[in-house]
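Example record

One chain of 365 residues, shown exactly as stored in the release files.
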Amino acid sequence: MTLTRRRLLTAALATGVAVPLGSGWPAAAQAAARLTLPAPTGPHPVDTVPLHLIDRARHREMMVSVWYPARNVGRFPVTPWLTAAPLRELLASADIDIDVAAPLTAGHEGAPALVGTGRRPVVVFSHGAGGHRSETTIVVQELASHGYVVVTVDHPDDSYSEFPDGRLTVPDDDVSVTPWDHAHDILFVLDRIEDLAAGLGVMIDPRRIGMYGWSKGATATALVMNSDRRVLAGLSLDGPMQSVPFATEIDRPFMLLTAEFTRTTEDSGVAEFWPLLHGWRREIHAEGGLHGAYCDHQWLLPQLAAITGMSDEDLADWIGTLAPARAVRIQQAYPLAFFDLHLRHQRQPLLDGPSRAFPEMRFVS
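Predicted structure tokens for this chain:
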């Protein structure tokens, strides 16, 4: 069997090995173009604040971002998806030789929090192998625009990140970073989450915490739920669900949004993981979607392809046949519905069965 770039990427993500995102992308020396992100659909403007945390017990320092609904954002600067230095490193690692500017997010840095509406539910995000905390910004800003506080975490030695003093960090191939390392980073953040939010003037409800992750971060989500009952609901965005030790039983809601890693995928841990779910559970599969169907890659890669002159055939090898605009709607609708159901206790017909609005999404019995 020919090992295509897509299969190589899928295998690497399953095992936590970093592979250049754009191997085989044509080089192009063009003037800088700014990529774009779709706007969130919620009623609230969004603020985001980067924070530098140090876990002295584990000798790890990490960057996190706190996203929350804001007010009076007009005079506050908009935050880029990635700052310039880590973006350059990310593109260089993928052999993408073009001059592009990171997309601007919906987050305005430094805006005051929206107050007077009670304590807010919290969702924490863990990224994939060799990724970064911004890789599901479409989902993050959608949740924040609907009233959630979202905390995204860069995992040391496994992310493209920049510290306040200008130090740049990139994934280190010589350091083994497992889903358990991601999970322990999240547990460290959970212990400080109330103080972090209070310092930003945000009132959170520590009794309503959810978590989601993409790829390796999805596996970490299950491991965090095994370790900490503060997390009431977990969402996997195409997680391989592979770890040593493996996850144990979970009695709280858990949903799998699958593309490459399903219960029938060879060398996937999803089939072994599914019987461990003893609470509310769903597997919903995106037809035509590949591994990046649930993250910003599905929207950004076609823009890079247009700039570099990549063929439609080669682009399809990366993003499959799921149209980017449809992927965005899926990313905005399904995570929001899941957390609204389990953290806000609002009925969500979208999660009861197939929807005419989303014919691509198949409920796996």
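Notes: The chain is about 30% helix and 20% strand.
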